[in-house]
Fold:
Amino acid sequence: MSKQETIQCAVFGASGYSGAELVWLLHNHPEFTLTHAFSSSAREKAEPISALYPQLSGRCEQILQPWHSDLLPQLAQQVRVVFLALPHETSAELAPQLIAAGLVVFDLSGAFRLSDAHQHLQAYGFKQPKLEAAVPYGLAEFTQLRGDEPLIAVPGCYPTAAALALRPISHLLTQYSVPIVNAVSGVTGAGRKAQLHTSCAEVSLQAYGIASHRHQPEMAQSIGREVLFVPHLGNFKRGILATIYAQVQAGISTATIADSLAACYADQPLIRLVDTPPKLAQVVATPYCDIYFKLHEQQLIFSVAIDNLLKGAAAQAVQLANQYFRLPASAGLLNLGAVV
Ligand SMILES: NC(=O)C1=CN([C@@H]2O[C@H](COP(=O)(O)OP(=O)(O)OC[C@H]3O[C@@H](n4cnc5c(N)ncnc54)[C@H](OP(=O)(O)O)[C@@H]3O)[C@@H](O)[C@H]2O)C=CC1
Ligand SMILES: CC(=O)N[C@@H](CCC(=O)OP(=O)(O)O)C(=O)O
Structure:
């Protein structure tokens, strides 16, 4: 494919953490060309993304521009695909306009992840816009995109880690097992906007949102059974380490679990089944999800690691776009490092 024939795309929320990672991935992608990067605080004066992220100086000088709805007809002519790395409610408002203009939207927010409108309202505090077609929930390893969907909901960071461990073995759990997901995230999970309680110097490893986080219903929907979720915030920059406990049926062996995971992920290049509990350092700045498990009597324990901004956000979105356009799952995702 010559550069002329690449797929033109745009990023909204490009000044934010997930948006900046998207810009970097798309800037380097062999089959996509990033033509527009929007940021709500971009001034009329053109400013390159390297003004916000100096580590990109000389490597990516993508201009950040402000968005006005007047730009939509022109954008729809120039671009096929749009990635939204925006607050949930902003995505909910913008995505229907982009779809109506004929664009394909990969939404990194939670605006369209929950299929139950009441659950969505409870979790997010605003009504989900009604769309004509059902929105696929894009846990990449478990989603078959046809390539004609107008909107794809990219899963949340914590639910990605939990579901990649639990989905392949869910049928081996006891009927009433309610898996417990304890996960620790770095502060980039809270986004770039400065807030005292997520500032690295203020944070000291702490649980929050116990059994009430909006990702709990998302995990339950993805896994197909109730879960108990306890997120924690750690004073490190990026990465999620999830420890997951679930009860398997009597007689299930280590080999059965290993075989289920191996069969499920045999052709999935971004899942690594590992023999020792993963360290965050081995996934940070990579698009991988590393999964380790141990069976102790009937208790199955997983240790799972992802980079929240990559496999938990930008890299998974690009992986889904790869699938949408029939490209290899890992196209443009390996050997790049990260921005933030
Ligand atoms: N951080 C993470 O680990 C993950 C994040 N996500 C989701 O991705 C999305 C982006 O998150 P993240 O990158 O962390 O967030 P950031 O806070 O880092 O960035 C948010 C972006 O949205 C823009 N923005 C904020 N308010 C508005 C508005 N009213 N109108 C238009 N643009 C606006 C900001 O632009 P500006 O600053 O220029 O105004 C910024 O570019 C969220 O929906 C989040 O839930 C999903 C998975 C993981
Ligand atoms: C550490 C931290 O604050 N993490 C965020 C979750 C990450 C995120 O942005 O949420 P989505 O995946 O739903 O988009 C939180 O708990 O709200």
User: Anything to note?
Assistant: The chain has two domains: 7-155+311-324, 158-307. The domain at 158-307 is CATH 3.30.360.10 (Dihydrodipicolinate Reductase; domain 2). The chain has eight helices and 14 strands.
